[in-house]
Amino acid sequence: MAAHIYQHALENNLLVGHDWVTTTPSSETKLSKVVDVSTETETSPQRRQQRLLRSKQQANTQQRAVNENNKKDQQLPIVFAHGMGDSCFNSGMDHITKKTGDMLGVYSVCIPTGKDQAEDTNNGYALNMDASVDVFAAAVLNNTQLQQGFHAIGFSQGNNVIRGYIAKYNTGNAVVHSFLSINGVNAGEGAVPHCDPSSLKRSESETTTTKIRFDICELLMESASRAAYTEFAQEHVFQANYWRDPRPSAFPRYQKYAQLAKWNNEAGFINETLKENWAKTSTFVWVLATQDSMVFPREGEHWQAPDPNDPYHSVLPMKETEWYKQDLFGLRTADEAGKNYFETFEGDHLAFSEEDFTRWINTYLVGGMHEW
């Protein structure tokens, strides 16, 4: 089963860094041939150098704003959490983890939720969000090199694991100092991937094809909500835990069942510990992909949310959302303290470049510039 999941993840660009490496660990060789970056011809060495120079110049501008927060954190280790369909044991995650540690000269680790590649990959689907966080937290708390705190970097739904750690375990010394969330579904998933209802406007002039596509999306939305908002799904399916149907009619079911509703303090009761733990992280970096086809709305990667009055076609800016206005879990407090930073890159889900990644690391996690 892991091999089928791997192939699906590869085809949908869910394997972070798989095309940045030139060698394949033995655990992955049987699954897929890894792309050799030495065969890439899209840019010349001169153009790549120019892009890197521009990245450095952009980084210097924002770096000054976060240097003070980072002075005491420069030597902190790095912890990675992978996304759906990926694994810490895959070559891409192994490569990006080691290269980041080498670049900064610090301890760097990707924490899996399974003992090997197959279990780690499968648990990205079949181990629920809370349980995944507990496994992740146990590994953090048992790692002596992380007991003075760490920077955390998440990819896609791996950000839910880090966010859950902040919500439940961000106490004592092993706290997340900086959280770099790349294409995170922290704000939830509001549509079936690749079925973006915002592109299917209903009007008098709509074609029959468009109407059929809209109706199919509606059907898939309803089916997904009926499947996700059950005790069984919440116990056994990770993706069901962050399913956030944007239709007002579905909100009561979301409140009753979804694990995300509890973390967002949207479940009808307020857990003040969530806000207290959120406040212990000093820097949050939210990265959005401008053409993201996996996350709806993609603006949720910047904590925006569907407008309840027109959830398919209108998105509320972060400061107009209920979770911000009511400061449900600490987002507004963090923003007013200058802790939130927002980045974008051109492209689809997780299709960021090495230059992008290097710039984010240099800008937000350290005080000086480092080469990838």
Reconstruct the topology from this structure.
Elements: H1 2-11, H2 26-29, H3 45-70, E1 78-81, H4 91-104, E2 108-110, H5 117-126, H6 129-141, E3 150-155, H7 158-169, E4 176-182, H8 208-228, H9 231-236, H10 238-241, H11 251-257, H12 259-263, H13 272-278, E5 283-289, E6 305-306, E7 315-316, H14 322-325, H15 331-336, E8 340-345, H16 354-364
Parallel strand pairs: 1-2, 1-3, 3-4, 4-5, 5-8
Antiparallel strand pairs: 6-7
Helix pairs in contact: 1-5, 3-16, 6-7, 7-13
Structure description:
With 372 residues, the protein is an alpha/beta fold. The chain has helices spanning 2-11, 26-29, 45-70, 91-104, 117-126, 129-141, 158-169, 208-228, 231-236, 238-241, 251-257, 259-263, 272-278, 322-325, 331-336, 354-364; strands at 78-81, 108-110, 150-155, 176-182, 283-289, 305-306, 315-316, 340-345. Helix content is 43%, strand content 10%. The strands form 2 sheets. The chain has a 6-stranded parallel sheet with strand order 2-1-3-4-5-8, with helices on both faces. A two-stranded antiparallel sheet has the order 6-7. Helix 3 (45-70) runs parallel beside helix 16 (354-364). The relative contact order is 0.13.
Oligomer classification: single chain
Helix content: 40-55%
Shape verdict = globular
How many helices? The count is 16
- Low-pLDDT windows of residues: 23-43
What value does the Rg take, in angstroms?
20 Å
Q: How many strands, which pairing sense, and closed or not: the largest β-sheet?
A: 6 strands, parallel
Give the CA-CA distance, first to last residue.
Answer: 34 Å
Name the strands of the widest sheet in spatial order.
2-1-3-4-5-8
> Based on helices, strands and strand pairing, what is the structural class?
alpha/beta
| Average pLDDT figure | 83
Please count the beta strands (DSSP E, at least 2 residues each).
8
| Percentage of residues in DSSP E strands | 5-15%
Order of helices and strands: HHHEHEHHEHEHHHHHHEEEHHEH
